What we know:
- The chain is mainly α.
- The protein has one domain (2-201).
- The protein has seven helices and two strands; from the N terminus they run αααββαααα.
- It has helices spanning 2-37, 44-65, 74-101, 119-139, 141-144, 155-179, 193-201; strands spanning 113-114, 117-118.
- Strands 1-2 form a two-stranded antiparallel sheet.
- Strand 1 and strand 2 form a beta hairpin.
- The N and C termini lie far apart (74 Å).
Amino acid sequence: MRNRLSQLISPLGFWAAHLEILVLCGVLAGAFGFQFLNQEMPCPLCILQRIFMMLAALGAAWILVSLREGTLDRSDYALGHGMIILSGLCGSFVSIRQILLHIVPPDPGYGGTQLGLHLYTWALIVFVCLIGSSGICLLFSDFFLAGHTVPTPSFWTKGILALLGVMILANAITIFFEMGFQFKLPDNPTRYELFHEFEKRD
C-alpha cells in the first residue's frame, strides 16, 4: 500500500517545483504591470521583495536542474526547498516591515491595490504560501523521493526555466534603470535615475 501510494505521489514533488516557479513569475509579471501601466515605481522594500521571490524561484529551479537520469537526490531536494523557505522567511520580514510602515490610519499605503490589498500584502501571502508548500514537500519527502523515478526535464520544464531567466534579467535591467549609478534609492522613487543622469549631462 505504501509503495503504491509513493508511486502516485512521487511525481507531485517534481511538478510542484514547476508550479512554484510559474506562480512567482506571474506575481513578478503583475508587479511589472503596476510599474509600467500604472506608473508606480517600486520602492527599495518592493525591490527586496522581488529579489527574494526570484531567490525562492531559483530554489525551485535547483530541484528541476538537479535531476540525474530521472532521479532526484534527497540532498538536492532538501537544498532547493531550504532555499525557498529561507527566501520566503526573509521576504516575509520585508513585507511585514512595509505593512507596518503604512498600518496606522490615515496612511493610504504605498502604491495601488489589487482586490483591496496592496502589493506588499499580497507578497506576504505569497511568501507564507511558499513556506507552507515547501514545508509540506519536505514533510512528505519519503513519498516524493521513495526511490521512484520522476519525469525527466521536458520542453515545459525548459520553457519554465527560460521564463524565469527572462524575469530575472528583466528585473535586473529595470532595477539598474531605476537606481542608475547610485547605491541608494529614495523611499518614494518618482523617476528612473539612469535617464535622469543622462538628461543632466545633456
